């Protein structure tokens, strides 16, 4: 599928948030429990988590360390099967990895060090056997240009900065034109200035390409800036606490009163014992709680 297809999420960030005119979700996560079996016991990473991701969403999973964010991403990627519940992409049950879901990780060593920047990107395209070398090269150059690395196509990874390596990983992922781009704390290992620049670039890229993004972060501020919706997960094992609309925030709103209020509210929700009740305030802050569903937890909002 082309990433340049127009999407139902609306043309501008400021205009997002209306769900009524949209078709069904691209990704449906329904009551998903994820566990690891160790030799001595079973570790439950998430408990009955549900959420929907629509085409062109920038959907953020936010929660404390150990709440199962990475495990959820691995399950969406098809590496882990739920012990309860199911995940569907375009209505099809996810049961294995596929080129329709590509992951960008935090680590800088996700590139093959013996390949040039260009070869790193074309390799994934050629391995998927979807195109020949000429087309793969053309597409790789297109996305490397989009992430500002046109001058570095013949460089080797060890000659690049951390931010540049992440740009290569993002270009490689986008070149695959996945249905969903999965990012697991992609900027966490970068210094603060580079991280901010990468957030800005990611949003610019999204403006151009309108890919669908599922993005993991520990940072409340990063979640608010990158995401149009944020799923808040409780501490281990991760359960859904709330879902928040954050499309109204951008990189320039960090110092604003509304941004700060919402950040504080998210912090309370993540770390306070007292959970919100249906009908609580917060609507003034454009934070919308969901009513508990039949299972008693806060499910999908908006
Ligand atoms: N391979 C594994 N075997 C056993 N337990 C695991 C394994 N991987 C993760 N876990 C456990 O599952 C839980 C969720 O881990 P996960 O890495 O998904 O959390 P996270 O929210 O991504 O954390 P962080 O933000 O620190 O990366 C944790 O309790 C973790 O210890």
Structure overview:
The protein is α/β, with parallel strands linked by helices and 302 residues long. Helix content is 29%, strand content 20%. It contains seven helices and ten strands. The protein has helices at 69-77, 117-127, 133-146, 162-175, 192-209, 220-226, 257-271, and strands at 27-37, 42-53, 58-62, 84-89, 92-93, 101-104, 180-184, 213-217, 229-233, 240-245. Helix 2 crosses helix 3 (133-146), helix 2 runs parallel beside helix 4 (162-175) and helix 3 (133-146) crosses helix 4 (162-175). The protein is globular and about 50 Å long. The protein binds adenosine-5'-triphosphate. Keywords: ATP-binding, Cell membrane, Membrane, Nucleotide-binding, Transport. It holds the Pfam family ABC_tran. InterPro entries: AAA+_ATPase, ABC_transporter-like_ATP-bd, ABC_transporter-like_CS, ABC_transporter_ATP-bind, P-loop_NTPase.
């Amino acid at each position: 599928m082309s990433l340049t297809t127009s999407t139902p999420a609306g043309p501008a960030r400021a205009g997002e948030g209306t769900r009524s005119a949209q078709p069904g979700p691209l990704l449906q996560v329904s009551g998903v429990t994820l566990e690891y079996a160790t030799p001595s016991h079973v570790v439950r990473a998430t408990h009955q988590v549900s959420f929907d991701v629509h085409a062109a969403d920038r959907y953020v999973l936010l929660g404390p360390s150990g709440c199962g964010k990475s495990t959820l991403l691995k399950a969406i990627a098809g590496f882990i099967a739920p012990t309860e519940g199911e995940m569907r992409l375009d209505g099809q049950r996810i049961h294995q990895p596929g080129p329709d879901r590509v992951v960008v990780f935090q680590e800088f060593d996700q590139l093959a060090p013996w390949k040039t920047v260009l070869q790193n990107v074309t390799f994934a395209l050629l391995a998927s056997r979807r195109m020949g070398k000429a087309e793969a090269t053309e597409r790789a150059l297109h996305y490397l240009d989009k992430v500002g690395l046109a001058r570095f196509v013949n460089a080797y990874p060890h000659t690049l900065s951390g931010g540049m390596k992440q740009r290569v990983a993002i270009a490689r992922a986008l070149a695959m034109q996945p249905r969903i781009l999965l990012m697991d704390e992609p900027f966490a290992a970068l210094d603060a200035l580079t991280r901010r620049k990468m957030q800005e670039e990611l949003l610019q890229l999204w403006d151009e390409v309108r890919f669908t993004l599922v993005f993991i972060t520990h940072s409340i501020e990063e979640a608010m800036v990158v995401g149009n919706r944020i799923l808040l997960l409780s501490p281990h094992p991760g359960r859904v606490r709330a879902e928040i609309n954050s499309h109204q925030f951008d990189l320039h709103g960090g110092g604003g009163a509304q941004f700060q209020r919402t950040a504080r509210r998210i912090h309370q929700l993540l770390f306070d014992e007292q959970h919100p009740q249906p009908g609580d305030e917060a609507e003034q802050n454009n934070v919308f709680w969901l009513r508990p569903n039949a299972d008693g937890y806060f499910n999908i909002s908006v």
